[in-house]
Amino acid sequence: MRHTRRSWTPPSGWRLRDRLDKTWRWPLYSRGRAIGTLTAAILVVVIWPQGTGSEQATLAAATATNPTAQTSDVASRSAQPQGSPVPTSGTPDQGTNLTESPAPPTLTTSPEQYRTAEAVATQYLQVWCWQPAAAPANSNLTNTAPWITAAGQAADLTRSATWLPSLTSICGPVTVTQIGVQPSTPDLTLLQLSTRQAYINTSGVIVSQQRIEQTRRIVRGPDGRWLVDTQVQAG
Length: 235
What we know:
The protein has 235 residues and is of the alpha+beta class. It has helices at 12-25, 31-65, 69-79, 117-129, 139-143, 150-158; strands at 168-171, 175-178, 188-200, 206-220, 226-231. It is elongated, with a radius of gyration of 44 Å.
């Protein structure tokens, strides 16, 4: 009686297990292969996920905090006019700017200029402000002599403004305001004077301007004329 020998075939699960066992042992068959495999595993598992994750987290945080930051910055830059002029005056502009050069003040006297404190203060400040470029330095201060007391003019000369020989300074309309607390005498009053002073180049163009303010004593003399006196420090 003949017996037929059959070949034994392992189950499919065993074949898969054998292949997996050989796969993970494959790098161990060579030292160089093992080092290369270990290095590749470190790069893939450790370095790459952290770098990508941190960049994505940073971008997500920035977007969540200010999603329109880039758009707003571009829009604000495009909205700014190109070549905008830079103010040249050291004093911030206040009130209405002068758009053209005012007319020079008159240097002749008239009775109307002395009848009220407001009238003489207006005449004084316009003359005080007018300094032609071709005129000697401080000519504006000496020109105020008919409308100011000797003490007031002496005080002005000690605080003379900077003279710009290439520019003409001139003022626009003067605003005169009576301050709150007034002296009890009828021959003395305190007025606040304000105007805009412009600097004009030789072509008649305004190149800079600023606001001028003074608080002045205005006194009435024995002849009934009002004259500007010394400045009063505000406050």
